[in-house]
Design a protein that fits this description.
9-stranded mixed β-sheet, 9 strands, Alpha-Beta Plaits, alpha+beta
Length: 244
């Protein structure tokens, strides 16, 4: 039995997220069906972190175990010949038995992308906030408050299955070009909906010209009523995952 780690990217807009669900198409279900066709046996694939419906991945990672003589290159070719064009396997390699795509990850980075001017061609790949004040100098200053280890429970959709809601943010940075705003955020772990709630709340604070103390108090008091609207999924990308 060998353990393989695959690196993949995907356009998430036509999928109902990563996790397998009954009677709907997900990234996991498509890949596991492809693996079953290739290896003629059921194979469970373990991902670095689930993405929601409409969310994309530039670099996602997942592992699986199988008894095979196929090389990593053969597996990449076979998968890409079997899966739909909205998913692309970028690489594959053997990993040690104790490797785990989720628990061996040391850092994850997400990108959130916002259009400055609405484009129908980007409606599934960037968000748009009409009539909203977006000043990245303000947003960047606010985001620095989040760096470090904090309790991010207030930014999570569901924490009922978690032992801890502490996360350590290493990076939170806004940049822009002529057409878009980009938010990069890196941490050791992320909670469900955490990035989208952070983006929506930062934009809410900026748009309403509130002081930075608003965000500091939100982290301290964990008051869900003070959150901004959760940002749409279309602008969110899993940018990369780092392993030792």
């Amino acid at each position: 039995m060998k353990k393989f780690l695959i690196q993949l990217s995907y356009d998430g807009h036509s999928f109902h997220g990563w996790q397998i669900q009954n009677d709907i198409v997900t990234i996991q279900s498509v890949i596991e069906e492809a693996l079953e066709k290739i290896f003629k046996t059921q194979i469970r694939i373990i991902v670095s972190g689930r993405t929601d419906a409409g969310v994309h991945a530039l670099n996602q990672y997942a592992h699986f175990e199988v008894s095979t003589r196929m090389t990593s290159e053969n597996i990449v070719a076979a998968l890409n010949a079997t899966i739909p064009d909205a998913i692309y396997v970028k690489g594959c390699k053997n990993v040690p038995e104790n490797f785990h795509a989720r628990f061996s990850a040391k850092k994850r980075t997400y990108l959130y992308k916002i259009m400055k001017q609405y484009s129908p061609f980007e409606r599934f790949y960037s968000s748009f906030f009409p009539g909203t004040l977006i000043d990245i100098s303000i947003l960047d200053k606010l985001s620095k408050i989040l760096i470090g280890t904090h309790d991010f429970k207030v930014f999570a959709h569901d924490t009922s299955q978690l032992n801890s809601t502490l996360c350590t943010l290493e990076k939170a940075e806004w940049i822009e070009d002529d057409t878009h705003y980009y938010f990069y955020i890196s941490a050791n772990r992320f909670l469900h909906n955490m990035v989208r709630r952070i983006v929506g709340t930062l934009i809410f604070i900026c748009d309403n010209q509130l002081k930075s103390k608003y965000l500091e108090q939100l982290l301290r008091d964990q008051d869900y009523t003070k959150l901004g609207t959760t940002a749409p999924p279309e602008g969110l990308y899993l940018y990369d995952v780092e392993y030792n």
